[in-house]
Amino acid sequence: MRTSWLVVFFVALALEILWSSRVSGFYGDSAAIESVSRRGAHVGIVVPNMYEFTPLLEQGRFVADATIPFIDIGGRRFHIGTIHGKRSIVVISGLSMLNAGTTTQQLLDHFRIDVVLHYGIAGSSNPSLHIADVSIASSWIHTGLWYWQRYGQGPNDELSLEQNGDYTRLLGNLHFGSYNDPSNENSDNKLGHIYFQPEEVFPITGTPEVRQHAFKVPVSRTLYETAQRELMNLELKACLNSSSCLSSEPKVLFGLTGSSANVFLDNAAYRTLLYDKFGISSVDMESAAVALTCYAQGKPFIIFRSISDLAGGSDHSNEAIQFSDLAAENAVIAVVEFIRSSHATF
Fold first, then answer.
1. What's the half-sphere exposure (Cβ side, CA atoms, 13 Å) at 183?
2. N or C: which end of the chain has fewer CB within 10 A?
3. CATH of the domain at 310
4. Count of domains in the chain?
């Protein structure tokens, strides 16, 4: 009788452990991860949101694996499959820099990843970058790391901890008083100045606990040159439906600088500042985090962002609600064609 009770107890305990591991995100366990990794290196694809992932699932673009279609790890689902015969793992990160960075690190920690591709929609801060265009930037900047100076100080005043190398004035600042309404006689503003800061990074090739700094992070040169060669004349979609089309054909643009921050930008003045000060052409909330993570881990990466709105640069309301689907579709077209055409290069 006691033996039967012990059997029941241990079976219940095993089921509890199995269930706990499943709900905590380890469904599929290490054996499934090892099985996928034994197949060889994969293309890792990080996508911000489901509506940007959905076009990849359509028209047979992404073919899920028949035996292990996905593995859940730490609350995220890693979709296992192929794109044009190339082994691929796709994961949705969720909105924001934190989500994008941690998801990219999870991807690299658990799987054999050859290169990382990231795609999604973005706002345009460049007058030459239009709705549904795809920007393949050569470098990425995180513009959301600031030193906010106290009121009454300015560019000639040293920042706290600047001597230690923690903060800098060299990258430029935003003076809020420069954007006051001209009808207001007060030429200053108690919000003062913010100074753009580089990220602290700890590259895998560096010395642990010895920080380095990175502001403009370049994409992989090989991947970028491949994209230039293969996607320069790529045909993109110009129509939302049969009765609603853009006035000009969308195109793929290269040689630009992209930026990210935990801000949905819909402000003409700040949009202009980013373009004038840093030459930034597109703005989003995730790409720079993917770039910084790959940079620190020494992993080749490239990013595709399609324009859904003008980030406050138009005279009417934000366009994202109208053009997000079209932009997401064009971003997917570019990514899928990149994988197809560069099959032999990675």
1. 0
2. N
3. 3.40.50.1580
4. 2
Same domain assignment for residues 115 and 240: yes
Any idea which residue has 């009808």 for tokens? 183
Query: Alpha-carbon distance 198 to 124, whole Å?
Result: 22
d(CA 316, CA 309): 11
DSSP notation for 280-334: EEEEESSHHHHHHHHHHHT--EEEEEEEEE-TT-SSSS-SHHHHHHHHHHHHHHH
pLDDT digits (tens, 9 = 90+) for 275-308: 999 999 999 999 999 999 999 999 999 999 999 9
Q: Both 79 and 211 in a single domain?
A: yes
Q: Which of 171, 197, 223 is a domain's end point?
A: 197
Q: Which residues are CB-neighbours of 128 under 8 A, at least 6 positions away?
A: 253, 281
Q: Which residues contact 32 (CB under 8 A, 6 or more apart)?
A: 68, 71
Token pair for residue 265? 């930008």
Q: Which residues contact 202 (CB under 8 A, 6 or more apart)?
A: 208, 209, 210, 211, 212, 296
Which tokens in the block code for residue 162?
């600047």
Instruction: Report how far apart the first and last C-alpha atoms of the chain are (Å, whole number).
Output: 61
What range does the domain containing 164 cover? 146-197
Q: What angle do CA 12, 17, 19 make, to 5 degrees?
A: 90
Helix (H) or strand (E) holding 259: strand 257-260
Amino acid letter, 308: S
For the whole model, what pTM was predicted? 0.89
